[in-house]
Amino acid sequence: MRFFSDNAAAAHPAVIDAIAESNRLDTAYDGDSWSQCLDAAFSELFETDVRALWVATGTAANCLALATLCPSYGAILCHRDAHIENDEAGAPALFTGGAKLTLLDGEGAKLLPETVEAACARVRKDVHQVQPRALSITNATEYGLSYRASEVAAIGDAARRHGLGLHMDGARFANAVAFTGESPANLTWRAGVDALSFGFVKNGGLNAEALIFFRRELADEAVVMRKRSGHLFSKGRSLAAQLLAMLDGDLWMENGRKANAAAQRMATAAPDRLVHPVEANEVFLRMTSDEAAALRAQGFDFYDWGVGEIRLVTSWNSDDTAVAKLSAAIASL
Amino acid sequence: MRFFSDNAAAAHPAVIDAIAESNRLDTAYDGDSWSQCLDAAFSELFETDVRALWVATGTAANCLALATLCPSYGAILCHRDAHIENDEAGAPALFTGGAKLTLLDGEGAKLLPETVEAACARVRKDVHQVQPRALSITNATEYGLSYRASEVAAIGDAARRHGLGLHMDGARFANAVAFTGESPANLTWRAGVDALSFGFVKNGGLNAEALIFFRRELADEAVVMRKRSGHLFSKGRSLAAQLLAMLDGDLWMENGRKANAAAQRMATAAPDRLVHPVEANEVFLRMTSDEAAALRAQGFDFYDWGVGEIRLVTSWNSDDTAVAKLSAAIASL
Amino acid sequence: MRFFSDNAAAAHPAVIDAIAESNRLDTAYDGDSWSQCLDAAFSELFETDVRALWVATGTAANCLALATLCPSYGAILCHRDAHIENDEAGAPALFTGGAKLTLLDGEGAKLLPETVEAACARVRKDVHQVQPRALSITNATEYGLSYRASEVAAIGDAARRHGLGLHMDGARFANAVAFTGESPANLTWRAGVDALSFGFVKNGGLNAEALIFFRRELADEAVVMRKRSGHLFSKGRSLAAQLLAMLDGDLWMENGRKANAAAQRMATAAPDRLVHPVEANEVFLRMTSDEAAALRAQGFDFYDWGVGEIRLVTSWNSDDTAVAKLSAAIASL
Amino acid sequence: MRFFSDNAAAAHPAVIDAIAESNRLDTAYDGDSWSQCLDAAFSELFETDVRALWVATGTAANCLALATLCPSYGAILCHRDAHIENDEAGAPALFTGGAKLTLLDGEGAKLLPETVEAACARVRKDVHQVQPRALSITNATEYGLSYRASEVAAIGDAARRHGLGLHMDGARFANAVAFTGESPANLTWRAGVDALSFGFVKNGGLNAEALIFFRRELADEAVVMRKRSGHLFSKGRSLAAQLLAMLDGDLWMENGRKANAAAQRMATAAPDRLVHPVEANEVFLRMTSDEAAALRAQGFDFYDWGVGEIRLVTSWNSDDTAVAKLSAAIASL
Lengths: 333, 333, 333, 333
Prior knowledge:
Four copies of one chain form a homotetramer. Chain A is of the alpha/beta class. Chain A folds into two domains: 239 residues, Aspartate Aminotransferase, domain 2, CATH 3.40.640.10; 79 residues, Aspartate Aminotransferase, domain 1 (Alpha-Beta Complex), CATH 3.90.1150.10. Chain A contains 14 helices and ten strands. In chain A, the strands form two sheets. The first copy, chain A, has a seven-stranded mixed sheet, with helices on both faces. Chain A has a three-stranded antiparallel sheet with strand order 8-10-9, covered by helices on one side. In chain A, β4, α7 and β5 form a beta-alpha-beta unit. Chain A is globular and about 55 Å long. At the A-B interface, α1, α3, α5 and α10 of A face α1, α3, α5 and α10 of B.
């Protein structure tokens, strides 16, 4: 019974079907009929004209976005615990040509506008210090908190005041949308977001993420850099088809809701242990190593999060029985 | 009836089946049971211990290999018409940190040892000139010629004499093996190759290539750079499963043979028009634009190759009837 | 008696005096009173508002200029024998983040507009091929030819038609101005040049070159990259003072004329041996290795230029007697 | 009366004389007779065989050193207030190809071995996190503290245990040697330092620093990168001559002692205001903005260091009278 990570879950059957169905000769790269539908499909979802590119990994999506927003000699503000800082092996530096990540603090990996303001104020406006040029926030955050639209908008205002491009790492965007009930538009471009890594892999996709540009001209550069970084697939239709399958009938929302619901059940079972509010599909619990060992002995698999904490992650296909069992097991510790 | 490129063909059904079959929760990245089989499976094929990494695109495979063989301040020798020079958007520079491609000539995109020797001799041994550190050859070449094992070995000797790491871009390695009848081992490490981009996508795969390191220690660096360039898939099992399906029962060889056979049929139909010998699955023909237009009017699709030439590419599932029709149509021009 | 290279010559005494004279406490970096004069001084020389930055080496000047004109994923067109290709250790790739040098042919290292046009035409307008974004010419060229203003203008037109930024490597700009009798303005911005590496080191400077931006906004990025590449000197006044000393009383022109005159004397002595017309301070002569040895035995020092050719370079302080002796020695071979 | 920075001071007359004296034709780059003496001169000073390269700026020295010690995908540990992090415009990322700076805390910009150990322990040993490969310390630190040899040795032990190359930014190495009374050898290679940026510009040089490699093989790569970053001067003799002049008669030590003595005088005048012990040529004082304004009104020039602090920097030629006046002025605030 694995609660290790949503990125290890199986893909949704509809996604596998879409791959199989798109498996026929068509124009290579992104000239095929599936890829050609992406702009329209995502524009409808976001209620504005967007450019939508498939990429295969979240790291690629994040870093291509950042590379359009920040020059090699600029800095990207982000949370100290951001995925781009901690889990991408320095990829942002590769894609941007060496841009610096300036690390900010914030409860639950969430940034506040005043933190952004203060960070900008600390930088001398001279050639000796790396000037901030972009800001990246994660929604839902690495600790499972979801920004509300108003919170993103406040961050977006700060970004604009300081001339920062705004990127949202939406590896768990579905979970944030499902939790907040906000529209995708309100959580992004209406709040000042320039580019969104719209994650599908953690939400039932196999190997397709959408990179969405609300400032559409940025996509011109991104398509070049996608190729230059080896991310232009010749049979790109298999990625486009996955995305379309996830959008179809709002499967992405349905999956996000299921994962969130499973997380809530576990949160309910252990309200006193919660390290962070549960606003997506991650549950961080205070737990001694003995307790953790006891759970593992019962067949549960999960991540130790430093000393005295564990992380449980649910997914679109978290098994109901397993969730119930784990909830019970935690409650009875 | 498309003869445009093998990279646009459908994937083999066995590959799609393997993706579906591997679609279950397992350890993320390359910790799953499929990925863990790759070293052994390719070691058996190559009759020596190798490290085998999945990557999704040929560009990624080539550039990761080159980045392990050449420092940022070194040069990579390659043919003027090499894919890494002409069709990868400068990706080698991104992955290596700016290494230079030094372009060499050679009939049919094939390099000769003396050309390599001469290129090395031209470089002054000082800090002002970029020193060659690696050599990349393509087998089969971009013009559909296949290196024999003895030819690779002669190149390998030249590389060793000048301290060059040797990379083989095997986007069409299956076609070269099928045409020459040489063993994979003889065409690679026994001939001095350090790293091979073993292509599957053009040969029936969907989005999985194998990056093979014969100097196994190079793989340690490559796995870091794979992640850093955004090419480490969380559900990597879907790539590993494709490779294993292609190796199973030597499907890769069967596919290569089929594509080669289709090319030979067309070559036989137009012996006087051949620009290059047909030693893989590509056929380059002299043809006026009027003739090309006539073929297109009959429903055939292909690439103009400069002025007065066309390129026909066959694949593992080139339609027999279409091949016969095109052969006849060319013969009767 | 050394005719090896102008870059090894002594600096002009006025330059050394200027360094000594500027050796007093002032604002660091480029905030001092000397540095603050550069824009005005060069604007007057060029008859238009320019931004002028000191840098210490020609490589730095060239590469900073190119980095403002070409993105990491673009190509820079230049002659096959250009200094940026052959003698800068790959520095353009470092400064631009991996831009590609596309090598063109041309008599005497001089480019023609039609060569530039043809090079642009050869590139497919897709994401697979690196798109040209800049063009670099050297004046005087690496073989001592000088572009006339009309020739630069024709190149400039071609550059503009294809959206290429135009850089001039003027390591021997003084020699070109002196030879052609054209104004600095006519040879540069009036002919479409965006940025000029205005060389002084080969012309009597110690370690100061001027990087001139005619598109002034480019300088904003260049000053950041100058610092980021370690080229912002804390006592920059010593560089600025050198440039001002060279401009003072047109010392740079006087030095250029002297070097050219010495070259002409040697050219006159060996009209039948000339490989290229002598239009600056370099003389390329056909010469057997026996003849070269004979000259060396008489105490002359110079560069073999491949087989059967030698290169003689004069400088602002080439010794008249040595020049006369060498001219006589060549004439009597 | 300026106490703004030592990097704005005049160069020592002996340095200017050396430049003038070396101003004659010699072999270009570092083939001249001055440059050829550096290895021997510094080997004697350090009591072991070293390779010594001239470079013109501290940023270049630091970043060339780091680029030999850390691959593009590695991390460099340093103090949060290190010059390489705060004042070099991201140059380490340019030179290393994107290595990450991991920021550590420590009183007075000084690192402790246990801090290094803890930082290494925090990094998961997987491909997702950037692995530490180098460690950079500054001696004297950015806050004017000097590491003792035993402290460096403890750091060096920690570095070795974790496979980190050890770099010392010695922009004020002379001040540290003068203050501690330790030998250059004890403060560097005997304590595990692999490469030292030996600063001269802040200590009376004009534009020459020495980059010292105790692991001599690293210099082979550094000389290539020096050229590739535009830092190989054609008249390098002017840099080498400066270094030799500074070594001659231990002028560098004499200058360091003078600067330190001036700082001590001011420290003595304001013992209660000291933010840090004064162990080099920098004095950080607590001071209200009114007090600072009062000093400025008396003609003193210095840096505000955040709110409520100022920084005074002395140099080899700090004027005795000015130092006395400022000391008195502070004492009577």
